[in-house]
Structures are given as structure tokens and as C-alpha cells.
Design a protein that fits this description.
alpha+beta; binds magnesium ion; single chain; binds 2-acetamido-2-deoxy-1-O-phosphono-alpha-D-glucopyranose; two-stranded antiparallel sheet; globular
Length: about 350
């Protein structure tokens, strides 16, 4: 279906004159649309393979953004979705594809921090997200991807792919498979604490990479967090952990030279500072488990990349045949490095907590 046709379904300011592909997301297709009045929007086709229920997804996203907009003074601190002419936040085209539009916000996102300050700003942004939503009833949100961070379930799925081995790839990656399997117990720690109630259910973002933080073009300070598709009930420590996995890593997610991949403890400290300064509602237990959140999240993503490689690259977009395997290897390398640095991470969290909270 033609992009211009799609945009007609939404209540835009002006008539679209220009649209270009935009961003680097692994999941949705994204376009930037400009109208004859100069208004700028983002148009996205929601990936139905990943998000089986786009209507529920948009219900979560609009509930959270509407709530956030009542909590902030600057409209750039919360995303603004555009209703369709029928008053919905999504449009279903004749081919059954789901589309949504939101205001393009003047600002920029980074794929990697260029300074400590950038990463500190992203810690503040995700901490603020946690804080602003601390009184939002998390259990009213749908689980848009059921069992998304249920590592116990992820292990079940992983073992299933290993045993079916649909592409005959398992034999070539035995070392990686063994690494994942040998970490099953540590991987299940937080899920068990969620079930037992030791960690509270929160509204979580679930994709807390630096490139989902919008920074102000002039001040370079964080404005808000983007990509709310995976907002759902979850654990705060996972949101923290995914940021560390991505932003405190010394190499890109798909770096081929594994010797370049490790965790930078200084960056870990920088992010922890921003996150804890903003997220004042976290419990003592949540703060204590932050380093474990980083470890488990990295392990989970490594497992997911490896599983997708075994499955024949069905989930994540790939640029070349071994892309998912390369990604899995970097994540597993990072897990090993985090394990070696666990004591230091715990010490840093305790120190930052003492400095920020005074205890
Ligand atoms: C996917 O496409 P992107 O970058 O927003 C994935 C995350 C992974 C990430 C790994 C819905 O996010 O869970 O951590 O790739 N999103 C979904 O780069 O599965
Ligand atoms: Mg994203």
C-alpha cells in the first residue's frame, strides 16, 4: 500500500509532500513524513510477527503517553500520537497491516554515547520514566509480548529450538549453546523474585537502549524516551539492565572482533548515577539487584539472538547470514565479562546509592 494513501487516514496538519525511510529499528518499518505546512511526523508499520495484537499494543502506548502528558510541563517530554479520522490511534489498511503516526520531535538519538554526559542523560531519562509512572497501575497494561522477559520461559523456547534444530545449525554452535545452558540458574534468579513478590511489578519500557532516548539538539539534555511498543508490566531491574547491556558495552552489538567486547565499569557507574537520581521510588531490593539485572538481560538477549540463528533468522532483521550468531557471541562475551565484574558492580551500586539517597 502506498505511504501517501496511509497518511490520509490520520488527522494531520497539512497534506503530506515528502516521506523517507527513517531510523535503524530491528522490528517496525519507519518513515518520516513532512506536509505542505512544514509539519513533521513519524509513520510506522507495526510488525505483526513480533506484535501479535497491535490494538492492545496501541492501547498500552496511548494509556501511558496520555498519562505522561499530564505529568510533564514541556510537551517534548512525552510522545504524542495522532488519531485517525475515525478517532483511533491506529489505522488498519486493506491488507490488514497496522499503522500509527506520532509527532516528529525535534531532537536526536545516539547509537552510542559520545561522552559520559550522554549516557548519564539516558540514565536520567529511563529513571524519570520509571519515576513518572511509579503510581500508574501496571497491572492494567496488556502484556503485548507475553512472557517477554520471562527467562524461565525463554530457556524453554531455547531448548526447544536446539532440539528441533530446523536449519541444522546447532552442531556448529555447540560452544555457544553450552554457555547459555550452563547459565540457566543465574538467568532465572530475577524471574523467581518476581513470582515470589520480592521484586515489585512496575510499568517498564523493556527496550531501554540509548538510541531510544531523545536528546535536545541545543542543550543535549534528555527529553523523553521513545519506542514504547514494549511498555508493559515488568521489572525495573530489567530496564536498567538493558541500558547497561547496550550502552556500557565497549563494542557494538554486532561487533565481529570479540576481543573488543567488555563492560566499561566507569560507564556502568555513570548510568547508575543518572538512573538512581531520577528513580527515587525504587525499593532497596530493586537497587540491590540492579547489577543482576544487567547480567540477566545480556544473557537473555544473547539467548534470543542464538535461538533466532537456530530458527533461521525469523525474528530479528539481519543484514547477512551469520548476523544473529555474531550478535549472540558479543552478548555472551559480555555476560562472561559482567560475571567477572559482579563484585565491582555491586560496590558501585552501593556507593552511588549512598551518595544519592544518603544511606
Ligand atoms: C529489538 O528493534 P529494537 O532495536 O527496538 C528487540 C529488543 C532487543 C533488541 C536487540 C520487540 O529492539 O528486545 O533487545 O532488538 N525488540 C523486540 O538489539 O523484540
Ligand atoms: Mg527500539
Amino acid at each position: 500500500m502506498h505511504i501517501q494513501q496511509i497518511t490520509k487516514a490520520f488527522r494531520l496538519n497539512g497534506v503530506p509532500t515528502n516521506w523517507v525511510e527513517f531510523g535503524h529499528g530491528h522490528i517496525n518499518s519507519t518513515f518520516k513524513v513532512t506536509t505542505d505546512t512544514g509539519a513533521e511526523y513519524i509513520l510506522q508499520k507495526i510488525n505483526k510477527y513480533v506484535f501479535r495484537n497491535p490494538i492492545r499494543l496501541m492501547s498500552n502506548v496511548s494509556a501511558v503517553t496520555d498519562y505522561l502528558r499530564t505529568k510533564v510541563d514541556d510537551c517534548r517530554m512525552a510522545m504524542h500520537f495522532i488519531p485517525t479520522v475515525r478517532g483511533l490511534y491506529y489505522y488498519r489498511d486493506s491488507e490488514g497491516e497496522f499503522w500509527r503516526m506520532y509527532d516528529f520531535m525535534r531532537g536526536f538519538c545516539l547509537d552510542a554515547p559520545e561522552s559520559d554526559e550522554d549516557f548519564y542523560q539516558s540514565g536520567l531519562a529511563f529513571g524519570r520514566f520509571q519515576e513518572l509512572l511509579s503510581e500508574f497501575p501496571a497491572d492494567t497494561l496488556y502484556e503485548t509480548i507475553p512472557e517477554f522477559h520471562n527467562t524461565i520461559d525463554r530457556y524453554k523456547q531455547f531448548k526447544n529450538s536446539v532440539s528441533i534444530d530446523p536449519c541444522g545449525r546447532a552442531a556448529g554452535v555447540q560452544e555457544e549453546i553450552n554457555f547459555v545452558l550452563s547459565h540457566e540458574e543465574v538467568g532465572s534468579t530475577l524471574q523467581k523474585m518476581r513470582v515470589s513478590g520480592q521484586l515489585p511489578l512496575r510499568v517498564t519500557h523493556n527496550d531501554t537502549k540509548l538510541n531510544n532516548v531523545l536528546l535536545d539538539r541545543d542543550t543535549r539534555k534528555s527529553l523523553c524516551v521513545l519506542d514504547l511498543d514494549t511498555v508493559m508490566p515488568g521489572l525495573s531491574v530489567y530496564d536498567f539492565g538493558d541500558s547497561i547491556r547496550f550502552g556500557a558495552a565497549t563494542a557494538a552489538e554486532d561487533e565481529q572482533d570479540l576481543s573488543k567486547m567488555s563492560m566499561d565499569l566507569h560507564m556502568f557507574e555513570v548510568y547508575t548515577k543518572g538512573f538512581l537520581e531520577a528513580a527515587t521510588a525504587l525499593t532497596e531490593k530493586e537497587v540491590e539487584m540492579l547489577p543482576m539485572g544487567a547480567l540477566v538481560m545480556t544473557l537473555e538477549v544473547g539467548l534470543r539472538f542464538l535461538k533466532d540463528y537456530l530458527d533461521g533468522d525469523l525474528y530479528f532483521k539481519t543484514a547477512y547470514p551469520e548476523h544473529n550468531l555474531v550478535r549472540a557471541r558479543t552478548q555472551l562475551k559480555l555476560v562472561a565479562d559482567m560475571e567477572a565484574k559482579m563484585d565491582e558492580m555491586n560496590r558501585i551500586v552501593a556507593e552511588v546509592k549512598a551518595a544519592v539517597r544518603g544511606n
